[in-house]
Structure formats: structure tokens, C-alpha cells
Amino acid sequence: MSTQKIEFMGQDCLEYNETLGRFDVIISCEVIEHVKAQARFLSNIANYLAPGGYALISTPNKALFSLSKEKSFLNSTHKVRRF
What we know:
By secondary structure, this protein is an alpha+beta fold. It has a domain at 18-74. It is 25% helix and 20% strand. It is built from 3 helices and 2 strands. β1, α1 (38-48) and β2 (49-58) form a beta-alpha-beta unit. The two termini are 31 Å apart.
């Protein structure tokens, strides 16, 4: 993986666009729990990855939110899938 060029961009991973090419690293923070079509989301991320590339996907830690003052977030009406 080259460190000579870093490019940041946003993309809707539910709609695959092959003209964007392939990427060495894809980072998705705190998104997947809001996506209904999670299998398609992950499949498209895999399609965007270059051979040997990395996908870093994070979700909120339910245990930490449960202990925090943010309990209202977990019980809110947001469309959130818990992992």
C-alpha cells in the first residue's frame, strides 16, 4: 500500500459505481447500524476494495452507551440495528 497519495472521498455504498475504481482502504464509521440493506452495503464495499485492501467498519459499543447518559439514544426512534 502506497503512502505517497491519500485521497478522502464520500460515496453511497448502496449504489455501486465502478467508474470510481478500487481503493486500498475504506473506512465506514458508525454507519452500518443505520443501513437496511446491510448485505448490499458490505458487498459493494468489497467490490470497491483493491486486491489486498482493507475495510475498517465500526459501530457504537452497546455496553458503553448503556452505561452512559446517552440512554435516550438507544431508546430513540432512530432506525438503528444493534450489533
